Amino acid sequence: MPKKSVWEMNFLERLHYSISGKTFRAILMFSLIISTAAVAFGFTLYSATVNREFRIMTWRAAESAAEAIDTEEVIREAEFVLSIYDSLSEEERQDPEDPAYRSKFDEVRTEAFEEFRERLLRLMNGNHAIAAYTAAIDEENNRMIFLADADPKASFCPPGTWDPITNAEKEAYLYGAPPSLLDQLYDTQAMPAAITNIAKYGYRCTAGKELFKTGRYTVFVFFDNDMNQVAEVSRNFLLQYVILLLIVTLIVMFFSQRQLRKTTVDPINKMASAAARYIQDRKNGRTAENYFGDLGIHTGDEIENLSLTMEAMEKDAAAYVADLARITAEKERVSAELTLANRIQADMLPNIFPAFPEREEFDIYASMDPAKEVGGDFYDFFLIDPDHLGIVMADVSGKGVPAALFMMVSKILVQNYAMTGRTPKEVLEKVNEQICKNNREEMFVTVWFGILDLVNGGLTAANAGHEYPIICHPGGKFEVIHDRHGFVIGGMEDVKYRNYTMQLEQGAKLFLYTDGVPESENTAREQFGLERTVEALNRKADASPEEILKEVDRSVKEFVGDADPFDDLTMLCVHYIGKKGAQMKEMTTEASVDSLSEVLKFVDTELETAGCSMKTQMQIDVAVEELFVNVASYAYPNGQGRAVIGVRIDDDIGEVFIRIIDTGIPYNPLEKADPDVTLGAEDREIGGLGIFMAKKSMDEMEYERTDGKNIVTIRKKIRG
Amino acid sequence: MLNCEMNRDGSELVIRLEGRLDTVTAPELEEKMNGALEGVESLTMDFEKLEYISSAGLRILLTTQKLMNRQGKMKVVHVNDVIQEIFEVTGFVDILTIE
Fold it and tell me: Distance between CA A80 and CA A93 in Å, rounded?
């Protein structure tokens, strides 16, 4: 098959590849073969007929001459000539052209001989022959010995001269030539005739009538007819025949081509150009109908059939296209709605960064990259009060629109309960309670919820079946924190969660994520894993939360490569910066009254550095003393323990923050009832006075029991 | 650190305290005062040089006040602002005689 279409070809290529070209060549080839066969057969038949007619004509002439001539005279001449011929030696007879040989027969040419010749000449002319003569066939030597030749011209053969003859000629004269196919057809008897073409006499037909036999010689009367004109006539015949055949072939070809064009090539071309128009129009976005219906092909054969099929196909295609357009429009509508839903969902999450440009104590960045148009992952963060940041990372079971709806509900519930000041454990329990009330679809959500104290870096969190948080302490590396997992939210009613606390030092970073990060798969179905996540985090451990998240995202995408995104990639990173210049100083000491001076000295040094007034310093000393003595007296009933005292000066707000930690038995000094300070001296009890004093002189005092630690914190304004 | 100077003049006793009266120093003071108050009818606690007092100190003051209520009178003089505030907060202003 050629690579281009028939329309793009030049004349020669088209002749080679087009249907008309192929038919043209086939007809030409066919005509040539038929013509050649016809010419060969016709010419052969023609020649055979002519040859036969000549042989019959010549033989008849010879037969009639044999009737007309005087046989006695012929016998006399024959005996005379043959006696001379016999008398000569073979050597003398060898050259019949030799005048010496010829002269030996001169005496034969008598008056009677010449008269005989003249009579023979008349017979010759009467029969329109070119030669008439009597001759004897020498069977032994294959010679024709001339007796009397009627020829008056130079070609005259004198008596006694001889010509060599072939065996075939000899057999033909003596016994008749074998009958040709035509002779057998016409049942013609064998004729003593031969057609020869020798240089001496030219192309002629010779026939003889046997007169008599004498010894080894048989005497004949021969007539010759000229065949040259026959050859000429044959040539003319052949020429005309070929010309006629050519004309007929051309006419046949012309008409067959026309017919072929009308019945085959034109209809095919019509269909082809209709198809080309159809394709072109579709490409240019035009729509017309009935490309194949108006072609008017009525050939009644397979081609009309093909055209009808094409018409039906066009109608089918049009119907299909209309269907497709409708379905596509529908799909586009759904897709547009999903895009809108996705935007609403994204807008629900805090997504403008920096989120809290006015807050210097922390930096936060989060990102959500849904695998589908809408996903069930979400992150959230919000200020519960100016000092507490709520952080949420959650993953709803399932995907798509249902997950997105469930996610919205979960997000709102978590935030609403968080804003009421509940601890993470309480928030998650409340959310679970609400979700379980109406959860016929049995969806669930894993949630990690934490509250970060922006003042001291304390983090209180609870985990409802969510991934482990990853934390980087200042100057260290990111490490996975294997926190205690509660059950997923929405899974079961009355599930209890647990709070846990962690201390974020200034500069610490907290990274939260959904399972889309560690469970992202590459084409080899390997998971990205926590190890690679931590590696990616540590590559950028010193960078901002935004850069850290971008690095993780980049690493995951590089790892996944061409594989389909498995799940949403949702991540959040908090960088706890803390108050500028407010570094907590700590000292650890024996929880014993003996250490009191040391503790107060430590606190006083910090306060003096901060330029605290003597009065305030004394008040703070009282509070610290009372709290520390309390620890020393009650925390470790069975022996000795240690206490950690931390002091931080928050210069920007002119406040001092002090924290006393012990690992003793749980004891909340703040719960102790205040003494009645209106009683008289006799009724007074001294207990509880110290804590009461501390409470009264400090701006704020709090107690917390976490991880087996009693933590008491106090705050006091030291300036304006 | 607490310095304690006692001047006995008949049934009058003046105690001058200097420094800090806290959990550590309070037992020292308590020991010194043990017996020293016998026969004292007028006790004056001079707090001019006392910088600081904690609940342990308050406890001694209360015990002493109760004792002196039975055998005479007691007054506290030259109280600085900080200690005055503590006395006020704790209701000691109503128990002690502060001049």
Answer: 16
Q: Residues A563, A687: one domain?
A: no
Domain identity same for A567 and A607: no
CA distances from A632 to A628, A635, A669 (A): 6, 6, 12
| Residue A378, CA atoms < 13 Å, CB-side half-sphere | 30
* A342 shares a domain with A372: no
pLDDT reading at A176 higher than 70? yes
Say yes or no: A627 contacts chain B, CB-CB below 8 A. Answer: no
Q: What is the pLDDT of residue A582?
A: 62
Nearest to B62 among A594, A622, A681 (CB): A681
A201 vs B17, residue with greater confidence: B17
Answer yes or no: do A324 and A220 share one domain.
no
Distance (Å) from the alpha carbon of A517 to chain B's nearest alpha carbon: 57
Q: Which residues of B touch A (CB under 8 A)?
A: 22-24, 51-56, 58-59, 62, 65-66, 69, 81-82, 85-86, 89-91, 94-95
Residues of B with Cβ-Cβ distance to A618 under 8 angstroms: 51-52, 82
Question: What CATH number is attached to the domain comprising A470?
Answer: 3.60.40.10
User: Domains in chain A: how many in total?
Assistant: 4
Mutate to test the interface with B, among A618, A634, A682, A696 (most CBs of B within 10 A): A618
Least Cα separation, residue B24 to chain A (angstroms): 7
Q: If you average pLDDT over every residue of chain A, what do you get?
A: 86
Question: Is A557 in CB contact (< 8 Å) with chain B?
Answer: no
Q: Is A681–B65 a contact, with Cβ atoms under 8 angstroms apart?
A: yes
Interface test with B, best of A595, A598, A603, A693 (most B CBs within 10 A): A693
CB contact under 8 A, B52 and A622: yes
Residue A365: predicted pLDDT: 94
Nearest alpha carbon to residue A172 among A147, A209, A225: A209
Are B95 and A680 in contact (CB < 8 Å)? yes
Q: How far apart are CA A24 and CA A620, in angstroms?
A: 120
| Same domain, residue pair A306 and A423 | no
User: Per the domain annotation, does A367 fall within a domain?
Assistant: yes
CB A490 within 8 A of CB A444: yes
Tokens standing for A357?
């440009």
State which of A176, A208, A233 marks the end of a domain. Answer: A233
**A264 found inside a domain:** no
* Cβ–Cβ below 8 Å for B82 and A615: yes
Q: What is the pLDDT of residues A624-659, one digit of tens each?
A: 999 998 898 888 888 788 999 999 888 777 889 999
* A546 token code pair: 């935004």
Interchain CB distance below 8 Å, B89 and A622: no
Count of residues in chain B: 99
Residue A53's domain comprises: 22-233
- How far is A208 from A74, CA to CA, in rounded Å? 14
Residue A366 pLDDT > 60, yes or no? yes
- Report which of residues A236 and A293 the model is more confident about: A236
From A632, which residue of chain B is nearest by alpha-carbon distance? B23
Distance of residue B54 Cα from the nearest chain A Cα, in angstroms: 6
For residues A181 and A637, which has the higher predicted lDDT (pLDDT)?
A: A637
CA distance A311 to A317: 10
Beta strands (DSSP E) in A215-293 are 217-226
Q: What is the pLDDT of residues A526-580, one digit of tens each?
A: 889 999 999 999 999 889 999 999 999 999 988 988 877 666 789 999 999 887 6
The alpha carbon of A495 is separated from its chain's Cα centroid by a whole number of angstroms, namely 55
Q: Note whether A548 and A596 are same-domain residues.
A: no
pLDDT of residue A610: 84
Q: Which domains does chain B have, with CATH numbers?
A: 2-94 (3.30.750.24)
Radius of gyration of chain A (CA): 67
